[in-house]
Specification:
The complex is a heterodimer of chains A (317) and B (348). With 317 residues, chain A is mainly alpha-helical. Chain A has one domain (4-231). Chain A has eleven helices and four strands. A two-stranded antiparallel ribbon of chain A has the order 1-4. In chain A, strands 2-3 form a two-stranded antiparallel sheet. In chain B, strands 1-4 form a two-stranded antiparallel sheet. Classes of the chains: A mainly alpha (317), B mainly alpha (348).
Chain lengths: 317, 348
């Protein structure tokens, strides 16, 4: 029968994966809340973060790589600058344009990023510098264990999430962002510069997404193109959480991470569980773990489209 | 004699070819694609034109869903894959190409309608998200060896000795594929042109412009959205089937999100919601892509860089520039240019 310690092990790694997704999902929810842009390029932006460390921190492109920690810092800084750049150059043109234009623009941006990274580094997996990979694992009570890289990534993700929550709750800038998100015109009347707020939201969003990408790559020891799939998986998280709710995105991401880990252990390959009565092994084939969140997404869209904490929009003629 | 041409009846106003110059152009231009291969066009060019016609069908299908009914569908690759794999499965039973393609189209239409069902409750980007999920699910499904009893293997060779219907009307070589896809494209182009002129097309447009207002006026919004999904899905599925026969080999790698993006570039470049725009977009973008591919391939061969991956960068930039400069597409821009020249040197 299914062994309890294994189950606990998988649950823990699922929550950990969820915490990693949470960063990317919160980047999405933040920008949707403040500017109304649905960013379909989140996966590729996370990829930019993940490969940023490879470019700056290893000697694959540049002859004298930065030390690992500096490379991570530079990548995050690059993410923030990229956010401001994208807002100024691209997304400002599309304020007030139909949803379709904005969606297609983000998809096109995704194509540009992944194509460019493929051009620079090729389609192969690239491992991270030594200082960012850890060989040992940490023992947890009840006989479970978790690898150190994973644990560190998860811990950092949780720190960022908590810092963000505190930032939104207790700082003036955070309140301005919340104000601009809830009512743009009222915020403008009260003297908030919407232009600067939107630029800040983009910088913050892409900065967080880049951190998410770096940590996702760090948890698996290096960057690969499979990170792009995060872009669609986080939709399951944010739609379940209610699209414009940042705590909802966090909660949704944890659930999606759990679903993915449990799905890939219990519903695919040799470890798949056997249905007790009819004696059929629930083996849906390799890669089902990543598909389960998408099925969950479809169910949420049909059953509860506004999610847990989302605001239901009422339309009038 | 009137000094010009005037519409004197509703029929002439709504006609497919309204002006004398259009009729002349039709008579002069229509034979060109039919006699082109006979005039010594190289095999590579015939193949490129066939691909253009096949993609034109898929883009016209996208035009029905996105241009007419306004639903954002991001599953071109998935629908084409469903069409392609169904066609391949049907061909092995010896049914012939036309019935196989029809079944492929119906299958894609069925899946399209199934993924259109959420539009009962939600709209806009939720459909975009759910169809994007379909794209990923389809890629996984066709790669999955445990679903082989449904799709029949991820990599498949299409049999080469196939007939149009059953064993009759044998197809041989690139030229027959060329004519087949040309005729199919003309059929679907006329179908979409007529669709936009009839009540169904106007209903689609009403749903697109303001679905709430359309519902108040007595339009069944849900039914019409599903109808658009079915018609568009059928066309995309048929195009997938033709594409499979054209390449002669199918693999999930041909039907990725990149294909979806490519079709969006074509449609948005030409002009959303216009049949001629879609055809123009497919033509221009396919030729551009072909030139770009060959240039980048020679660069890759010379320098050892993988420059071919820059194609998606190029297309991404084209799509962003088109949307920023002229969201209605090149056809609308040409119309504006014509107006400007007509009034020149006055502003109005």
């Amino acid at each position: 029968m299914v062994d309890f310690v294994t189950f606990l092990d998988i649950t823990i790694s699922g929550i950990g994966l969820g915490a990693l997704y949470a960063l990317v999902a919160m980047g999405f929810a933040l920008i949707y809340k403040v500017t109304g842009v649905l960013n379909f390029a989140q996966g590729e932006l996370a990829l930019v973060g993940a490969y940023g460390v490879v470019i700056l921190g290893t000697s694959s492109l540049i002859s004298t790589p930065l030390p690992a920690v500096a490379a991570v810092g530079a990548t995050i800084l690059f993410g923030i600058i990229l956010g401001i750049f994208l807002e100024r150059v691209i997304f400002r043109q599309f304020i007030g344009e139909p949803v379709l234009s904005v969606i297609i623009v983000t998809l096109a941006l995704g194509g540009i990023f992944s194509g460019f990274i493929r051009f620079l580094l090729g389609p192969n997996y690239r491992s991270y510098p030594e200082a960012l990979t850890f060989g040992f694992s940490i023992d947890l009570p009840l006989g479970t264990s978790i690898s150190a890289a994973y644990a560190l990534a998860v811990a950092l993700a949780l720190v960022v999430v908590v810092a963000l929550m505190l930032f939104f709750r207790y700082t003036v800038t955070g309140s301005i962002l919340r104000a601009a998100a809830s009512d743009e015109q009222a915020a403008m009347v009260l003297g908030v510069s919407i232009e600067r707020t939107i630029a800040l939201a983009w910088a913050l969003s892409i900065g967080i997404t880049a951190i998410g990408g770096v940590l996702l790559a760090m948890s698996s020891g290096g960057a690969g193109f499979s990170i792009v799939a995060t872009g669609i998986i986080i939709f399951a998280a944010v739609v379940f959480g209610g699209l414009d709710s940042i705590p909802g995105a966090f909660l949704g991401a944890i659930i999606v991470g759990l679903l993915q880990e449990l799905g890939s252990f219990y519903l695919e390959g040799g470890s798949a569980v056997v249905l007790p009565v009819v004696d059929v092994q629930l083996n849906f084939g390799a890669g089902f773990g990543e598909i389960l969140p998408l099925i969950f997404l479809l169910v949420v869209i049909v059953v509860k489209p506004y999610g847990l904490f989302g605001t239901e929009r009422i339309e009038r003629l | 004699m009137p000094c010009g041409e005037y519409f004197t009846s509703y029929e002439s106003r709504m006609g497919l070819f309204r002006w004398r110059i259009q009729r002349v152009a039709l008579v002069l231009a229509l034979p060109i694609p039919f006699i082109l291969p006979l005039l010594g066009l190289g095999g590579g060019n015939v193949s490129l034109l066939s691909q253009m016609f096949i993609f034109a069908i898929a883009v016209l299908g996208l035009n029905v869903i996105l241009g007419y009914a306004g639903e954002i569908v991001l599953a071109q690759g998935a629908f084409m894959a469903i069409g392609a794999y169904t066609t391949s499965r049907m061909l092995t039973t010896g049914a012939g190409l036309l019935p196989s393609m029809a079944v492929g189209g119906l299958m894609a239409a069925l899946v399209a309608v199934a993924f259109g069902l959420p539009s009962f409750r939600v709209k806009g980007f939720y459909i975009a998200i759910s169809t994007l999920a379909l794209q990923f699910i389809a890629e996984w499904f066709f790669n999955n060896s445990r679903a082989e009893w449904i799709h029949g293997g991820a990599q498949q060779q299409i049999p080469s000795d196939i007939g149009l219907i059953g064993p009759f009307g044998g197809l041989g070589g690139d030229l027959s594929i060329y004519y087949l896809s040309l005729v199919a494209m003309l059929f679907f182009a006329i179908l979409s042109l007529n669709l936009s002129r009839t009540g169904i097309g106007r209903t689609f447009r009403a749903v697109h412009e303001n679905d709430l207002a359309a519902a108040v006026l007595g339009v069944n919004v849900f039914k019409n959205k599903l109808l658009a999904f079915a018609i568009g899905g059928f066309m995309i599925g048929v195009s997938g089937g033709l594409y499979a026969v054209y390449i002669g080999f199918i693999s999930p790698d041909y039907f990725t999100l990149a294909l979806t993006l490519e079709h969006y570039v074509m449609l948005l470049f030409g002009g959303l919601g216009r049949v001629w725009g879609a055809l123009l977009g497919v033509g221009v973008v396919t030729i551009l892509q072909d030139i770009l591919q060959s240039i980048l391939q020679s660069i890759s061969a010379a320098t050892g860089l993988n420059a071919t991956s820059l194609v998606s960068v190029f297309f991404g930039m084209v799509i962003i520039i088109v949307l920023a400069v002229e969201p209605k597409g090149v056809l609308a821009a040409l119309g504006q240019l014509k107006e400007y020249l007509r009034k020149w040197p006055y502003a109005y």
